[in-house]
């Protein structure tokens, strides 16, 4: 495990070399958050009220801020791109000679990047926008603690989805468009742009049961107290089941990809 910790630490420190990029990323995140909040302010102004379907404008502002935080700390395109570059350069074959797991290396690398983005982009962005717009606290202490658990689950699921899509590149021989496909699915079915309580039926029911819902929607719904205690535990269990399923898929695909590299490489 010390080797993977070293990978995570190296990933964190390597990004410190690009300090000017921090300000550009913070500015970009601020623009995204301001745009989301402006959309909901305009939508609520259009209906002439501050409550729609039992959801207040301040709750939607908080949802928009949290949605940017949850998604902003993880970069699926970076994970898929890393696999694509390793495949293109041939560096991926070197991992077959190492007593290490390539998927675990990717996870450790992303953990280091996650810590870096959390401290330099997510927290400053939330702090600034919360002071500007106001941000609701967790509905209860329980909801606040469970939000952290759901956020950790969100990070794990998002990594596993990205790794799964990235490993598919072994059969396509390119990662081109894979990150776009995953990004489109996340934009639509994670609840990042529109919470599921505004979705029409039966699309809302379908979206709530897809694994993408655990990336943004459920962490935010827990934070805002939109789920009962029983539902919180239920959906945490379902999310863990999805994570276990994706983990099995990643390990299986990596084993098949390793065999494919060995056969093609002689």
Structure explained in plain terms:
It is a single chain. The protein is an all-alpha fold. It has eleven helices and two strands; from the N terminus they run ααββααααααααα. Strands 1-2 form a two-stranded antiparallel ribbon. The longest helix has 37 residues, at 229-265. The mean pLDDT is 82. Keywords: Membrane, Transmembrane, Transmembrane helix. Pfam families: ABC2_membrane_6 (PF06182). The chain crosses the membrane at residues 114-136, 148-173, 180-199, 232-254. This is ABC-2 type transport system permease protein. InterPro entries: ABC-2_transporter-like (IPR010390).
Summarize the structure.
The chain is mainly alpha-helical and 266 residues long.
What value does the Rg take, in angstroms? 20 Å
Q: Share of helix among residues? A: over 70%
Side-by-side strand order of the widest sheet: 1-2
Individual helix count: 11
**What sequence of helices (H) and strands (E) makes up the elements?**
HHEEHHHHHHHHH
> What is the strand tally?
2
Largest pleated sheet:
2 strands, antiparallel
Averaged pLDDT, please? 82
What is the end-to-end distance? 31 Å
Pfam family, one: ABC2_membrane_6
InterPro entries: ABC-2_transporter-like
Transmembrane segments: 114-136, 148-173, 180-199, 232-254
Protein name: ABC-2 type transport system permease protein
Which descriptors apply to this entry?
266 residues, 75% helix, ABC-2_transporter-like, ABC-2 type transport system permease protein, transmembrane helix
């Amino acid at each position: 495990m010390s080797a993977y910790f070293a990978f995570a630490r190296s990933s964190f420190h390597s990004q410190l070399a690009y300090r000017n990029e921090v300000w550009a990323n913070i500015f970009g995140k601020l623009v995204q958050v301001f745009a989301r909040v402006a959309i909901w302010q305009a939508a609520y102004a259009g209906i002439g009220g501050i409550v729609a379907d039992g959801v207040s404008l301040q709750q939607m502002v908080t949802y928009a801020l949290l949605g940017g935080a949850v998604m902003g700390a993880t970069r699926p395109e970076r994970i898929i791109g890393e696999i694509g570059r390793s495949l293109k350069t041939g560096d991926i074959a070197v991992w077959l000679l190492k007593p290490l797991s390539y998927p675990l290396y990717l996870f450790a690398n992303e953990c280091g990047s996650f810590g870096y983005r959390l401290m330099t982009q997510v927290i400053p962005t939330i702090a600034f926008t919360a002071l500007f717009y106001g941000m609701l606290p967790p509905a209860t202490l329980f909801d606040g603690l469970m939000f952290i658990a759901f956020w950790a689950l969100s990070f794990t699921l998002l990594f596993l989805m990205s790794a799964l899509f990235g490993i598919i590149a072994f059969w396509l021989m390119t990662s081109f468009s894979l990150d776009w496909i995953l990004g489109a699915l996340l934009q639509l079915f994670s609840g990042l742009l529109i919470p599921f309580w505004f979705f029409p039926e039966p699309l809302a029911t379908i979206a709530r049961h897809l694994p993408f819902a655990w990336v943004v929607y459920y962490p935010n719904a827990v934070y805002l107290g939109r789920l009962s205690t029983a539902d919180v535990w239920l959906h945490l269990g379902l999310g863990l089941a999805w994570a276990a399923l994706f983990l099995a898929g990643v390990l299986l695909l990596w084993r098949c990809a390793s065999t494919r590299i060995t056969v093609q490489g002689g």
